[in-house]
Design a protein that fits this description.
InterPro entries: NERD. The chain contains seven helices and nine strands; from the N terminus they run H-H-H-E-E-E-E-E-E-H-E-E-E-H-H-H. With 223 residues, it is α/β, with parallel strands linked by helices.
């Protein structure tokens, strides 16, 4: 589903906070109904987008969603980028259930469902490392200005010791805990403008092109 469908849902969640309680309850009910119409693969991204809209000051933390950038080896698509004076937070979301097993260096992690069925998937830390690398090269910023975060949305339970930047929730406090400033307000604005100007136009056409790039580069759907 294109961002043009997701954004009104997120906006409705934000508006609900500023309405009388009965109207707010009605708005939230409509939002939850709309959420059921969102493809499963997009629900995690929507949940993170909604959380940012509801809990993060948009004047301090500038957020961009579904940022697709062209590279010499194909495209890369980043679920969420938050730009602030404290740095650039690069967020990879995973909408999964079951138990999650893996380690920081394993190339593939394992999802185990209650039925006993297992599924292996690319280490999201490695996946997001590519996103971070592409942003670093595109923006020309130092390593210390970039922060990788992996967020599992849904009923997933992490069963292995993992770094603090892999979580099933609480990513907003994690972001706000970073207090060292690396950019000025003008630099933040410049980075946001460069990302907006340099990204591929969000939408179904870009998503299709990205999937084609992945198939050509990996033979499977990775980012």
């Amino acid at each position: 589903m294109s961002n043009r469908y997701l954004e009104p849902i997120v906006q409705a969640l934000g508006n609900a906070l500023h309405q009388p309680i009965l109207i707010a309850a009605l708005l939230v009910g409509v939002v939850l109904l709309c959420l059921r119409l969102v493809p499963k693969g997009k629900r995690g991204e929507l949940a993170v987008t909604a959380a940012k809209k509801l809990t993060v000051d948009g004047k301090v933390y500038r957020d961009l969603n579904n940022v697709t950038l062209a590279t010499p080896t194909g495209t890369t698509q980043i679920d969420h980028v938050i730009v602030s004076r404290q740095g650039i937070f690069v967020i990879e979301t995973k909408n999964m259930a079951g138990w999650i097993f893996g380690s920081e260096n394993q190339p593939r992690w394992t999802q185990r469902m209650g039925s006993g069925a297992t599924h292996q998937f690319q280490n999201p830390l490695h996946q997001n490392a590519r996103h971070v690398r592409v942003l670093k090269e595109f923006l020309g910023v130092p390593d210390e200005a970039l922060h990788s975060i992996v967020v599992f949305i849904g009923e997933a339970e992490l069963k292995s010791p993992l770094p603090d930047n892999v979580m099933t929730g609480g990513f907003i406090p994690y972001i706000k805990a970073e207090t060292s400033e690396v950019f000025t307000p003008d630099e933040v604005e410049d980075i946001v403008q460069r990302l907006q100007a340099g990204r591929m136009a969000p939408g179904r056409k870009t998503d299709k092109a990205h999937l084609g790039s992945l198939a050509q580069r990996h033979g499977r759907k990775q980012a």
